[in-house]
Amino acid sequence: MNDKIAESGRGALAQLKEAVKVYKRGEEKVFALQGVDLSVKKGDFLAIVGPSGSGKTTLLNILGCIDRLTHGRFFLDGRELTQESDSTLTKIRRNTVGFVFQQFFLIPTLTALENVSLPGLFSRNKKRLARAQELLKLLGLENKIRHRPSQLSGGEMQRVAIARALVNNPLLLLADEPTGNLDSKTAREVFEIFFNLNEKGLTVVVVTHNLELAKMANRIIYLEDGKIKE
Fold first, then answer.
1. Residues 177 and 40 sit within 8 Å (Cβ to Cβ)
2. Which residues of 32-46 are buried (b: 16+ CB within 10 A; e: fewer)?
3. Mean pLDDT over all residues of the chain?
């Protein structure tokens, strides 16, 4: 694993202060986040749980610079991003954050190696293919690098997606219901990958409905109606 993944220190990597996110549905206002205060420390493995519609995905999208706050402040890696431009957020999202989703979002015509290396192409990473091979080997897929998604199992596709999220050496890995399409055995294997990455120093935040898997994290927060309850 690249040493860059193992950024150490126990300071706050991501912080939300009085975070509010409001969506408009016609003339109706929907409060997805209501005054959330959250600090994610470097080296954390944080699980976010709660019912559907509680704001979990919105919270993850704010942390990943996909969405913006309506009110409040957001800091990432010591820098306030609340008012930054879209182009700046795109650059930070590409180089600082890795994403894993419930849907694998692999390009069907590309091999596992090509799918993993693709983000490195956009960031002009000259070592993207070597890095992709390293990650696929790390995740037990060294014999599947030439396989296309249709030739892989669900668990293998999610491991390819995890490798893709890591190819640019992010400081923060965000996963939104990453086991939603997997059986219980494979789901646990995926969480064990997150656990092992976190043991190497990577900060991981996972949204999940699976409370048993959430217990593998070192912190759990419960979100309800856009507020942290416990």
1. no
2. bbbebebebbbbbbb
3. 90
Element (H, E) at 227: strand 227-228
Q: How far apart are CA 2 and CA 67, in angstroms?
A: 29
Instruction: Give me the amino acid identity at 222.
Output: Y
CA 100 to chain centre: 5
| 152-190 tens-digit pLDDT | 999 999 999 999 999 989 999 999 999 988 999 999 999
Tokens of 147: 């396989």
Nearest to 33 by CA among 64, 69, 63, 67: 69
Token pair listed for 54? 């509680």
Measured distance CA(95)–CA(12) in Å, rounded: 18
DSSP helix/strand/coil, 153: coil
Question: 3-class SS at 41?
Answer: strand
Instruction: For residue 120, give the nearest of 173, 174, 168 by alpha carbon.
Output: 168
Cβ atoms < 10 Å from Cβ of 221: 20
Helix (H/G/I), strand (E/B), else coil: 4: helix
Residue 163 and residue 39: Cα distance in Å, rounded? Answer: 26
Could you tell me if 223 and 60 are in contact, meaning their C-beta atoms sit under 8 angstroms apart? no
